Amino acid sequence: MRAPILALKEVRLADGPMMLFDGVDLALDARTRACLVGRNGAGKSTLLRILSGQIEADAGERTVTPGTTIAYVPQEPEITGDTILDHATSGGAPDYRAEAALQAFGMDPQKGAKGLSGGETRRVALAKAFAEDPDVILLDEPTNHLDILAIEVLEAEIASSRAAALIVSHDRAFLERVTQRCFWLEHRLVRRLDAGFAGFEDWVAKIEAQQAEEARRQDKLLEREQHWMERGVTARRARNEGRRRRLLQLREDRSARLRENRGSMSIGMDAGGVSGKRVAEAKNLSKAFGERVILKDFSTRILRGDRVAIVGPNGAGKTTMVKLLLGELAPDAGEVKLGTNLAITYIDQSRAALSPEMTLKDVLTPLGGDQVLVRGQPKHVNAYAKDFLFKESQLRQPVRSLSGGERNRLLLARALANAANVMVLDEPTNDLDMDTLDLLEDLLADYEGTLILVSHDRDFIDRLATSTIGLDGTGRAVETPGGWQDFLSQNPGFFGAFGKAEAARSASKSSAPTATPKAAQKLSYKDQRRLAELETLIADMPGKMATLETAMADPGLYSRDPAGFDRFSRALDAARAQLAAAEEEWLELEERREALQTGR
To answer: Exposure check for the chain: N or C terminus, fewer CB within 10 A?
Structure first.
């Protein structure tokens, strides 16, 4: 067995009074692609910086095989030099390889290094890392700000690279395609799974079940030891000092568990007043900026309760599409009719609304005071911040001190305080940990309003969207029922070479063990919605049938109104048939839901 090329042993690091790592072991083998998963604030980015050699731990060892080269792409890379080629070669990569890497990510090597968008910055930083042909590549949220096409390129680059990779990412679909090993950072330690991310969540569930049982046993032991203490430890001090020390250690262990159990986000969404059935109706929309055509002759109708995903390459006009649909931007041709009683909330991926020098309290209470108006009801800012996993001590911190995930949570906190029947989310998954993503997904699934989602997270789209609008960057737009995979299957080649490559990958994914996405664990949004409709129908139908039966029980009805009797009879037969069909469909969906939850 060969030694790992990069490893940490018994690493410890404190962040002020809080211990981040307390005996972390992590070993990365040559050519192995692994992910590092953990909650926001667990220290994933810090651990990557220790591995890259940028910072030192308080204690423990970092070992690197002699001659090993390491490339590190942080969450927020900085691009230097006059051109992006200057930056791509600044780490020693030859020009030809840097140019090839930049072009693979769709970038012109001679493009200036100033004024790049978030997606362009990310692509340049990734191109630089791969151009250096390192032995180890460390990637911190590499899919942030990348469109789906660029993510596909990144997956291909990782697969073809000789480098060992350690990746921090929230993007499930991406991790399922590229990883062979998982590291889980939790409770200041790292656990290892020798399998790809597709098996991660089941593995974690088993560990957490074991931990819950162990915690239950520890709590019972603590109760017994506490009872023993109360019955007179002082009289047997010398003889029982060891037992007393054990009790104190149990108390300390339980206290640590309680401190680390930060809980889950306690947030809600309110659709406020009901909008009209029609939210927006667009007919023959066209829009261009100079020579650049964004949209040509596109029509759609968005109804109350729809979940519409908008996808396409960066620069294709997704944000422009949203503004056109909401009437914030006038089309060059065509028209948009908006529905009535619309209350719209917009969460912008750029986080432009967050001034770096504002404190968290300033963001949540822009008019001052200590109260946040949460969907019409006052709530103390400390309590509301706690719902989004912020500590009271953080309220005085400036926004610039927050991690990317914390900034995104802060935007969610501010947006969700308002009742809105139309929610526009522009890349809402950036930087969020998977626990928060799961909660956000559940909230959106239960949300009674209308959702317009701009995202490059394929898994997120597949779980939520009732329809997907694709923009190819040349003005062509197509809408397809369902999520991302539905769009691809019904529009092969829509995105050119990318679409063909993705379709081919999807067709062959069953034969690639490290590239097989994990099966869904719950019903799609459409099926969940249908299940709720069927439950309401089944509950209401007996009452309607009883009303019909009561009317037909009138002994004089037939002689008085034979046509009416016949009409009631046909309606009752139809109601019975409808109830039987609804019960059968409900049973099928309920069996499917149970099978998904149990993994059968």
So the answer is: N
Q: List the domain range (segments joined by +) for residue 579.
A: 525-598
pLDDT digits (tens, 9 = 90+) for 96-138: 999 999 999 989 999 999 989 888 999 999 999 999 999 999 9
Question: What span, in angstroms and rounded, lies between the C-alpha atoms of 180 and 434?
Answer: 19
484 closest CA partner among 306, 310, 303, 300 = 310
How confident is the model over 531-579, as pLDDT tens digits?
Answer: 777 777 887 888 888 888 888 888 777 778 888 888 888 888 888 888 8
| Adjacent-strand bridge partners of 122 | none
Tell the residue number behind the tokens 């959106």, with chain if given: 444
For 6-13, what is the mean pLDDT?
A: 95
Does the residue 217 lie in any domain?
yes
Identify the residue whose tokens are 């969460």.
347
Q: Which token pair is 375?
A: 């969907």
Considering its fold, how many domains does the chain have in total? 4
Residue partners of 146: CB distance under 8 A and separation at least 6? 119, 122, 123, 154, 314, 456
- The angle at the Cα of 267, spanning 261 to 270, to the nearest 5 degrees, equals 170
Asked if residue 284 and residue 245 are part of one domain, the reply reads no
User: 173 and 213 share a domain?
Assistant: no
- CA nearest to 170, candidates 200, 209, 137: 200
Same domain, 212 and 355: no
**Residues 6+ away with beta carbon under 8 Å from 503:** 488, 489, 492, 493
Beta-carbon contacts of 198 under 8 Å, excluding residues fewer than 6 positions away, are 176, 516, 517, 518
* Amino acid, single-letter form, for residue 251: R
Q: Which of 234, 260, 286 is the last residue of a domain?
A: 260
CATH code at position 43? 3.40.50.300
The pLDDT of residue 513: 43
Contact 44, 80 (CB under 8 A): no
Residues 33-48: tens digit of each pLDDT:
999 999 877 889 999 9
CATH number at residue 559: 1.10.287
Of the CA atoms within 13 Å of residue 292, those in its CB half-sphere come to 8
pTM of the model: 0.67
